[in-house]
DNA sequence: CTTTTGTATTCGTATATACGAACTATGTTC
DNA sequence: GAACATAGTTCGTATATACGAATACAAAAG
């Protein structure tokens, strides 16, 4: 299927993504240079994107900024998936028992994508990381999801055998990763010790329906609050929530739009 | 400037928006019919959008769904605007004093667009309406923002003099709206009594910097918890927050990407 | 088993779009 | 104030793209 992509479509997406990554804005000439597209070609695309509010053009400083539409339609997506609402409720009940941060998300190629975050109720979410991506191998539930693949497949995903480090604790080699994945396959639980965020430990597990690894969830706790006894409680709550979520998804299997597989 | 929009760009955005509105998915033929574009023209666009994860194609049921990318880049947008983070902190301090729902948003043509919602801390956000739009005249801070326009301009915005109703309490005519706007201009405060959501009352105000109406905020309370005494407290907190936010925005005026004006 | 109706996909040519060059406008440098 | 950068904009033609018709394939109906 290795499609020869439609050039204009690819260009439009390139524009949107580039602008989304640059909060300080970009001029038309900036876009032209960075995307290697003639200004005259970019011009009608950019003006149309601005009319539709996917971009915001400030005429005074001659800069394009990310527009509201991407945000508007992106949130429609996440709010419409009503299965996610049910999953939020499951997470909520866990959250109320332990009052620690919960994450729920899926694999997106070799990254994890956070779909739901549920914070401590003592402190409000100020900076959210919903919609963020991180390398799967650096996170608790990412590793749980990677455990569906054989050691050989994992090796193929990382041809040079090395893993880019996020913190000082990130696993460094495919061999270390495969060792952990074997253990995860055996127990069903995955652990993260400050591998994506310094000072945060996680217990995590994958959501598996009919043998397909569809999603993952984790409990994230600051090191100093992470004890052996609490870990036992966390795992028991995770297991319970996992079964509930698996039931929810299997009842509305067709509504689960994520393949959950590496494409 | 009434640009003759770039057809292909408009088509791509039409596809994205249509699919975002249809959680149950659409076939290529559905898209073709609804957008009045030949299937053969749509095909390369849709496959490219799918490769880039803006669409998700389920080959078994031959349907396109909203993909994750819109969500991913939409959230990048909202998280990158660091001025919003500071505003969230101001709202948070208000929220902690009264424990009621707060909204913050901007005008988007004649709608309000919710950028921030802060819930009661006793109950978790399960269904969010961040990213949603509502007619400005039906909401508290929407009316506060509309008050920047003269009665004549308001009349021009609604040429037939009638306002589409959202609930039984929505203002019905431009004359009623203009009467309220005059009062809002005088006092700086705006009220909503179940006009967008049955049973919810709001007090609201506009954020105004150098004479420009940039954004709005509101406190939303269930009717039975809305008393005259609390209203006094709400207005005092709104005023304080308003001044703080105006200060924040005026200090980073160039970072405020919204014109705040009807375009 | 044949027909109908639904889907996606392919292909050659008509057509909309892209692009280089030239241009305008504004601000900066010397 | 002349010279130089910076930006956005316009235009005619070369070229990539769009589209109708035809194809393929699957499922449902007769």
Report on this model:
- Two copies of one chain form a homodimer.
- Chain A is built from nine helices and eight strands.
- With 263 residues, chain A is an alpha+beta fold.
- The relative contact order of chain A is 0.11.
- In chain A, the strands form two sheets. Chain A has a six-stranded antiparallel beta sheet with strand order 5-4-3-8-7-6, with helices on both faces.
- Chain A has helices at residues 7-20, 28-35, 39-51, 68-80, 82-98, 140-146, 151-157, 174-187, 228-251, and strands at 55-58, 63-66, 101-108, 111-118, 133-135, 190-193, 200-209, 212-222.
- At the A-B interface, helix 1, helix 3, helix 4 and helix 5 of A face helix 1, helix 3, helix 4 and helix 5 of B.
- Chain A binds a DNA duplex (30 and 30 nucleotides) through residues 6-8, 27-29, 37-41, 43-44, 62.
Distinctive features:
alpha+beta; 8 strands; 20% strand; homodimer; two-stranded antiparallel sheet; six-stranded antiparallel sheet; DNA-binding; Beta-Lactamase; Arc Repressor Mutant, subunit A
Assembly state (oligomeric) = homodimer
Strand order of the largest sheet of chain A: 5-4-3-8-7-6
Shape type of chain A: globular
CATH architecture of the largest domain in chain A: 2-Layer Sandwich
Per DSSP, the total helix count of chain A is 9
Q: Classify the beta-strand content of chain A into a percent band.
A: 15-25%
Give the N-terminus to C-terminus distance of chain A in angstroms: 12 Å
Q: Element order, helices and strands of chain A?
A: HHHEEHHEEEHHHEEEH
CATH superfamily of the largest domain in chain A: GAF domain
Q: List unreliable stretches of 5+ residues of chain A.
A: none
Can you tell me the CATH topology of the largest domain in chain A? Beta-Lactamase
Question: Helix content range of the residues of chain A, please?
Answer: 40-55%
